[in-house]
Amino acid sequence: MHNTLKLLREEAGMSQGECATALGVSRQTVISIEKGHFDPRLSLAFRISRLFEVRVDEVFVPDRD
Amino acid sequence: MTTATQSSSIPWLKASVPAFVVALAVGAGAAAVRTDAPAAVVFAVFASLTFPFALALGAVLLDRTEHPEEHEDSIEKQWTTRASSGAFFDTVVAMGLTVFATSVLDTRGAPLWLFVLLALGDFAVRLAVIRRREA
Q1: Which domain holds residue A38?
Q2: Which among B10, B60, B81, B100 would be 20 to 30 A from B66, CA to CA?
Q3: Averaged over B98-115, what is the pLDDT?
Q4: Where are the transmembrane segments (chain B) (predicted)?
Q5: What is the CATH number of the domain that holds A12?
Q6: How far apart are CA B68 and CA B34, in angstroms?
């Protein structure tokens, strides 16, 4: 699964720390999601989509097999 | 700031009375059973050493602080889970190999504290490696 979190965050002019605070997670979690090391649960995925006002499938895109 | 400090110290205050009672009970129990030192000394040593642990345990159990982060959503939680499951596997293997070796060689097994130490060290190393690799 890859994601567009970094792109969305940068477009919104947010730092990783600000994004983490807005989502209620640690900065390390945001970094790990952006690097593709961590796929969050649905609850966090929806919080991310709400934060950037996009659909979940615009943030998280499954890899093609 | 003052409110946060006060609220964080509440579990410690609440835990202090039961911890004191537990420490007295352990001290009294040890003094009643053990015969290797005067009863007053045994009581003092066991009660004073039990109190901080009972206090810490009580504070942890009574802590109702609401943490902002949902732990299931955090990478730290995932790192901890992966490190602990790896350490558990290693410890079970080490214990199995030790039991096998001691039964074949007819020697005494390694003491339990050695495996506890191995598990803790293994967990710490695994956690550090995962954090370093993925941070």
Answers
A1: 2-54
A2: B81
A3: 89
A4: 12-33, 39-62, 83-104, 110-129
A5: 1.10.260.40
A6: 48
Residue A65 resides in a domain: no
Residue appearing with tokens 């964080």: B8
pTM: 0.62
Number of folded domains that form chain A: 1
Q: Which of B74, B78, B132 to mutate to test binding with chain A, by most A CBs within 10 Å of its CB?
A: B74
Question: Strands A60-61 and A2-3, how do they pair?
Answer: antiparallel
Reported ipTM: the value is 0.74
d(Cα B92, Cα B100) in Å, to the nearest integer?
12
pLDDT tens digit sequence for B42-62 = 999 999 999 999 999 888 888
Q: How far is A55 from chain B (nearest CA, A)?
A: 19
Residue with tokens 């956690």: B127
The residue that leads in pLDDT, B30 or B59, is: B30
